[in-house]
Amino acid sequence: MVKKEALKEQFSYLGVCNVTEEVLDKCVEICISNSIDEEELVEIWMAFSVSHLRGADPTLDTLVQMERKEFGKKQEQQSQPQQQPSRSQENTLVIYLGKDSATSACPDLGDDILEAYNSTPKAKSKIGRKKNEHTPDNRPGSGRSPRAIFSPASFSPTVATPSSKYRTRTNKGDAVCVFGEAQTTSWYSQNNTFKVHVQLPPSHLKSDACYMFAQLREVVQTLSEVIHHLSEEMISKFSLEELQPINIPCQSQFAGAGRICCDSNGRLNAKSLTLECAEGKTVQLDVSQVESYSLFPGQVVVVEGDNPMGNRLSAKQIHCDASLPLPPKPSLSTKETGPIQIVIAAGPFTQSDNMTFQPLEDLVEYIEDHKPHLVILTGPFIDASHPVVVQGMLAETYSSFFEKIVDGIMEPLKKLNTHVVLIPSFRDVHHHSVYPVPPFMLRKHYTNLTLAPDPCILNVDGLVIGATSTDILFHLGKEEISQVRPGSDRLGRLASHILSQQAFYPLYPPVEEINIDMELWAKYGRLDVTPHILILPSDLRCFIKNLNGCIVVNPERLAKGLIGGNFARLQVSCIGEEVSVNGQIVKI
């Protein structure tokens, strides 16, 4: 039975939200008379609308036109004597946006998505068409519509249907966050001949790294070594006395170290706090006498307090800051070359209702226009949770589609002095689902491209940039408990945990969706120095903050649901001993 609610839902998936009751009644009538379901009707309508009405919303008149054009021919064919279809015709599978090999099963559809919409696979009608000889597409290697540069071959036309909500946005280019003197900053490169040099540490995570080979005793040893290392840093920083065992009865105040744990499988709270020392001994942690604290599972702390009975440590003060000093001043002086322009964007790069990658395409256009020196893009590029991926609607491999995406980014920039850094995500469906994440591997080489792991430390002519694609801020926000003064900066506090714990992902155990390899985490997931700039993309509200000299940036996502998101742009000046940063987070 055809339902109006189902029709509304199918239309909303394609960005058509204002559908009147009389239009829905007509849709129900068409479904019943032609024996089709709600999804089939909406797909036919979208094909007809893009081909003949430039994507207009449905009305009674346009629905009548569609019914006459699409289903009238079908009824005529059914009234005529039908020929027995051959086996090859029965097995024909329509593939949209494929190249020559992908469209060979249905050559009459051609490569152009708008041409393909002239006749829909649902109506099964074949109409002879002639290519437009007056407006040829001169883009190399492309027979596609202008909005389908990044679109994959697929089994459904909706995959490459541009989002109407994104197309009709009115906030393009609006600054939603400003840092420093960004209001008076020119975001165009002042020196187009200057080229930055980007280097990864010599011992960074390689693309062929093996993972998940660590045994349980090695994991325990890794956690113990982290407790020893951070506790020694805090003892030195706060001039504390020598550490004492936390599980031995002591009525006088002493200092003990360990990591924060929960005494059950539930969420951490003030009553379930336990402290586990490097030797594996645990005691209950009482924080009722502590004036302020901010704690999460896996956090290494030094506690000053007493333990009269040996099983309950009553804390008087908790130290958790083991942050490292900033690196030396950059070797580059921007007094001669001009400020360094940096663009930062985080995936997903396409909306949840299609795979056209319109936001990414617009970002590439912005880069072509403004010519920044450095572009940092963090995954996911092909999100494993995207509805198109989950439903298996792609007609090409994930790896080949990713290569196409990278080519769509790099080819327009090949004549610029812009260096691009790609950072993977454990959510990338074509890549390793492990943390830390090895760098991407590509068949094609690009001179101005660096493939970095997640997380990574980049050295840009002495400017140290730390970056990750994992949403550690959101994960910490769900697990952290705190007692702080009203009006304190929660986002800044969450970001400071990364610096104070010297790790890109200090939460342990991690959230269920992350497969963390503790051996790789100990080697490649920790900080050796506090970076000048730290990039922490998150679903939480965007920000640019100065945390003790480190500029922390959360640009949010380039695409959020059915609409566009944000990207960040920074201007970095290195003059004398100072590193000055101006920044904005802008609507795509």
Protein architecture, described:
- There is one protein chain.
- With 588 residues, the protein is α/β, with parallel strands linked by helices.
- The chain contains 16 helices and 22 strands.
- A 7-stranded mixed beta sheet has the order 1-22-21-9-10-11-12. A 6-stranded mixed beta sheet has the order 2-13-14-16-18-17, with helices on one face.
- Helix 2 (21-34) runs parallel beside helix 4 (60-79) and helix 3 crosses helix 4.
- The protein starts with a helix and ends with a strand.
In short, what is this structure?
27% of the residues lie in helices and 20% in strands. The protein contains 16 helices and 22 strands.
Features:
six-stranded mixed β-sheet; 22 strands; globular; 16 helices; single chain; 588 residues; seven-stranded mixed β-sheet
Strand content: 15-25%
Overall pLDDT level = 85
Largest sheet: 7 strands, mixed
Looking at the structure, what is the overall shape? Answer: globular
User: How many strands in all?
Assistant: 22
Helix content: 25-40%
Distance between the termini: 42 Å
Enumerate the spans where pLDDT stays under 50 for 5 or more consecutive residues.
85-91, 98-147
| Order of the strands making up the biggest sheet | 1-22-21-9-10-11-12
